[in-house]
Amino acid sequence: MKAAELSRQAYPFATQFITDRRGRISKVVLSSREYRALLEALEDAGLHRAMRQVAREKPLRRRAALALLARE
Fold this sequence. Notes:
Blueprint: H1 3-10, E1 16-19, E2 25-29, H2 32-54, H3 62-71
Antiparallel strand pairs: 1-2
């Protein structure tokens, strides 16, 4: 399989590749739509990770939560 084909498989969202002198991919160009989708996916993954970290925590009542925030 050619390097260009491997690149397309590794970066299916890229519209263009920028390579160094040795022909190695150093940058990829994305459409703005693909870029926004990628950012959204990263944000979703971060939110999911944060939700899993606190899943077993006991919820605070409003007053206790406000007091905790006031101390920070």
